[in-house]
Amino acid sequence: MAVSSDENAMLQRADRLLADHPPAWTDSVVFLRAQYDAGLAWVHFPVGYGGSGAAVELQPLVDDRLSAGGAPPNGRMTNAIGAGQCAATVLAFGSEQQKQRYLPAVFTGEAPWCQLFSEPGSGSDLASLATRATVDGDVWLVQGQKVWTTGAQHARFALLLARTDPDAEKHAGITAFAVDMQAPGVEVRPLRQMSGGAEFNEVFLTDVRIPDEERLGDVGHGWAVSNQTLVLERYNMPRIPSRGEGPIALAVEAWQARRDKTSPVALALKGRLMEHWVAAEVLRLLQARATSLRAVGGAGPEGSLGKLAVSVVGRRLAEFMPSLLGPEATLIDSYEMADTPRPQRGSWDGVPFGIQRAFVGSPGMAIAGGTDQIQRNIIGDRVLGLPREPSVDKGVPWSRTLRN
Predict the structure, then answer these.
(1) 306 and 348 in one domain?
(2) What is the CATH number of the domain that holds 50?
(3) d(CA 16, CA 62)
(4) Looking at the 3D structure of the chain, how many domains does it have?
(5) What are the φ/ψ torsions at residue 223 (nearest 5 degrees)?
(6) How far apart are CA 127 and CA 226, in angstroms?
(7) How much of the chain is helix, strand and coil, in % rounded to 5?
(8) Which of the ends of the chain has fewer CB neighbours closer than 10 A, N or C?
(9) Residue of 196, 288, 232, 220 whose CA lies nearest to 91
(10) What digits encode the pLDDT tens for the residues 91-145?
(11) Nearest to 398 by CA among 159, 132, 202, 157
């Protein structure tokens, strides 16, 4: 396949990096900092901030070349939220000092990030958040509670949304900050899930002092910052999976591990497996189409439908896969506290316990990152042009709105 001049330039730059800093005997942080300086951290970022001003679609090409050369994993792989939308938000709204401080460290993995957005009473209606930040000279004092914060127990910094003007409309009185997760008054409590994992956390903020220089964007413009953050989330994973990759590969492996492939029950399961395989392939093509449209500046409905499709297809597949295992589906390796599902394997023909863990964790797909119901509202409003739901709190100060 022919290689374009842009692709060739990126590959040459990656090869020079590997030659100048051989991964086999170069410290991983040193290598990743050199990758950042070479403009290969986020190729679509501007020069001087870990990028080359190139097309985001060139990132997988660079990643594959560096991976083949033995490059260590970077923050985009180990801290997708931080090195994805948080880094892009700092780039868009941060000061020069913030960019120089935060961007290299999140890419090298030295300083992971999390997002302090959702609250016990403000999940789908994020704009109703109640965490308060009051100004005290050049410092903001923060009081409140966040919940469902992915990776908070490992994060060094966080992107925080807090209410700074309770007398403004709920969308208008919010401000965004970068907060030190090790600052006095920050308490993180992991939330145990029924899968045994603890990826999510609740975070308590008590008299946390944040210098005004750590504000991202203007005072009261936090809603615009958060919207930009969620739009930038699409650049977290620019790579489109190959056919048959991802969770569907786990289902196929489970089928291949079955001893019985010819009974009426087995043939019925095979038919259902093929339906899920087709759904996974349609989803992959939808993601590929959305990526192609973004590359030429388009913004079709494919992007809006992507999150909902991932949730629906993934949840249905996770609920089906245990039927491929038979009695083995009732077993799991352990429910001990774990941050992430472990790559342990079961005893029955090598089928991973990942199927059982995916099943018990599947309800979360309809909640994480915005519920399915909210996604359908967005699609109806912004894609199909249907009438919006009534906004009973439009024009009403946040302090006078009804809240949970």
Answers:
(1) yes
(2) 1.10.540.10
(3) 12
(4) 3
(5) -65, -40
(6) 10
(7) 50, 15, 40
(8) N
(9) 232
(10) 999 999 999 999 999 999 999 999 999 999 887 788 999 999 999 999 999 999 9
(11) 132
Series of mean pLDDT values for 10-residue runs along the chain (404 residues): 80 97 97 98 96 90 96 94 93 97 97 95 88 96 95 96 96 97 97 81 97 97 88 57 87 91 95 97 84 56 73 94 88 63 40 76 81 84 83 85 74
Judge whether 35 lies within some domain: yes
Residues 357 and 255 both lie in one domain: yes
What token pair was written down for 386?
Answer: 């249907």
The boundaries of the domain holding residue 288 are 240-370
Q: How many CA atoms lie within 13 A of 228 on its CB side?
A: 19
**Does residue 121 sit within a domain?**
yes
On the 0-12 / 13-18 / 19+ scale of CB atoms within 10 A, 11 is: middle
Q: Tell me the pairing of strands 157-163 and 113-116.
A: parallel
Q: How far is residue 269 CA from its own chain's centroid?
A: 33
Who's near 52: CB < 8 A, 6+ residues apart?
A: 10, 13, 39, 40, 43, 45
Calculate the dihedral angle through the C-alpha atoms of 3, 8, 12, 13, rounding to the nearest 10 degrees.
-130
Output the six-digit token pair for 239: 């790579």
Determine, yes or no, domain membership for 39.
yes
203 strand-pairing partners: 146, 188
> Are residues 138 and 254 located together in one domain of the fold?
no
Domain boundary among 108, 133, 165: 108
d(CA 277, CA 251): 9
Q: Fill in the amino acid letter for 176.
A: A
Which CATH number is 344's domain given? 1.20.140.10
Residue 389 lies in a domain: no
Cβ 50 vs Cβ 41: under 8 Å: yes
Tokens 């006078």 belong to which residue? 400
Catalytic site includes residue 253: no
Measuring CA to CA, how many Å separate 93 from each of 87, 88, 221, 229? 10, 9, 11, 10
What one-character DSSP code corresponds to residue 216? E
Provide the angle, in degrees to the nearest 10, between the axes of the packed helices 354-361 and 247-257: 130
Three-state DSSP at 288 gives helix
- Exactly one of 199, 202, 233, 328 is catalytic; name it: 233
CA 378 to chain centre: 19
φ, ψ of residue 399 in degrees (nearest 5): -65, -15
Residue with tokens 């019925």: 268
